[in-house]
Amino acid sequence: MDAFEKVCKEYKITAVKHELTLACIKLEDTEKLQKIMDLSISIHGEMNSLYDLVFAFIECGKVRQAKKILETPGLRARHQRLENRCKRLLEENRLTELEQLVAITKDVFDIDRNRMFMYLFEGYRRKNDCDKVPWCVDNYAKRRISSLSEVLTFVPYLRYSGVTWWRDDHFLCFFTFSQRAFFYEKLISTAMMPPTAKIRVHDMDQ
């Protein structure tokens, strides 16, 4: 710890900060953890340091503590940091951590949920985990999709899942009338459903 502090103060870099942070979390050494945070903030700023701590807590399985940090007043989304983290978790096949990160960041100001859910979709596709695709799409849809272009993002994952759950009213109720019509048109054009398929549209949103 003394060597880390010396390097931080003399060279303005935080070498092995992540490893030290993980060790302090596992040992529940709050005093040293706070020291690491103070040094990090002096070099990288408060927001970047808080996100580093969030990622470390999730990695250690301390999701509740990570979520509490994200509730810090004034904390905004750091898009590039979150993008890089999602990409790393995906590439390292750490889907549980990715799921947790997506879950606890839902209320962060200015968060780009679209991109984060897309990483989850891709992770399930790579893992051949069909069962989780409906859950992920359903939660995505609950955000009240705002544009037709977003609807298109579902098509490859619905094709991949190979099931017909997307016809259920429980899922469809999150789409507007025009979005559903456009969605079905794309499904038919990609041969996911036959042109003669009878879809109940009489109870769509008006």
What layout of secondary structure does this protein have?
Elements: H1 2-11, H2 17-27, H3 30-44, H4 46-59, H5 63-70, H6 79-91, H7 95-104, H8 113-127, H9 132-141, H10 148-152, H11 155-161, H12 169-172, H13 177-189
Helix pairs in contact: 2-3, 2-4, 3-4, 4-5, 6-8, 7-8, 8-9
Structure notes:
The protein is mainly α and 206 residues long. It has a domain of 67 residues. Helix content is 66%, strand content 0%. It is built from 13 helices and no strands. The longest helix has 15 residues. The radius of gyration is 21 Å and the shape is elongated. The C terminus is likely disordered.
Radius of gyration: 21 Å
The biggest beta sheet reads:
none
Task: Catalogue the unreliable spans.
Answer: 192-206
Mean pLDDT: 79
Helix content: 55-70%
Coarse shape: elongated
Tally of helical runs: 13
